[in-house]
Amino acid sequence: MLGNSFSFKQFTASNFSIRSATINLFLQNPPIFQLKPQNRKIPRAHFSMASPAAPVSVHRPTITHIIFDMDGLLLDTEKFYTEVQEIILARYNKSFNWSLKAKMMGKKAMESARIFVEETGISDSLSAEDFLVEREEMLQKLFPSSELMPGASRLIKHLHSKGIPFALATGSHRRHFELKTQRHGELFKLMHHIVLGDDPEVKKGKPAPDVFLAAAGRFEGAPVDSHKILVFEDAPLGVLAAKNAGMSVVMVPDPQLDNSHHDAADQVLSSLLDFNPSEWGLPPFEDGES
Fold this sequence. Notes:
Layout: H1 20-28, E1 65-68, H2 78-90, H3 98-104, H4 109-119, H5 128-142, H6 152-161, E2 166-169, H7 174-181, H8 185-188, E3 194-195, H9 210-216, E4 229-233, H10 236-244, E5 248-251, E6 267-268
Parallel strand pairs: 1-2, 1-4, 2-3, 4-5, 5-6
Helix pairs in contact: 2-5, 4-5
Keywords: Hydrolase, Magnesium, Metal-binding
Family: Belongs to the HAD-like hydrolase superfamily. DOG/GPP family.
Cofactor: Mg(2+)
């Protein structure tokens, strides 16, 4: 067999001569070639085909305690804040958007109010204090109609039936909390304890960890290892507050919230109905739970 570097044009009589006797001998006694099987194993990698990478397993800590946020997570109340703030801004020919809302969610009332009037450029016409007074009047009429978010009742009742301790940590003050929950009192009574935004121990609002640390410190047998606490949040600042407290976070954001705000969460779900307790070492839902 001729090598690849040897061209046919080079194959000439001048540089290639074989005695006829040798050729005849070759034709009369052709050599016998025997193919023997190779015992050498070829590495499997040589045969591998390109394929999608296998999903990476996510290591999650085993959870023993739960802390819930409230607005936008358990109760569908964020829409009320949006509605009222849109009405107020319309007077100034301005609009309310989700970029601004993301900065306000989870903050204490006065902090949120200052962000609102300054970011929208109406602080010369409306002070943060006056904004709160005006907003308060409208919100008090809306809060009593607050509805539960999908999956909230199912999850709370499941945790209670399995003896998993869970608490509420919200930036809402007591007067708002009572208005928002007046139709759902029986469900919120299942909480081990409740920490509100006007609690003396909560010095700073989210993203400071104060409200979650206060909630963690009131479970029986406290202190509880923060790595064994799972927080449920909908707001970017709330997620950061929980992470600052050293806790894991499941985020259930509003679909209008930009995806860039999801990064800090350990898990992002579209609804509490999608939560799988087993992934966090918690008792699984039983058939028929709704």
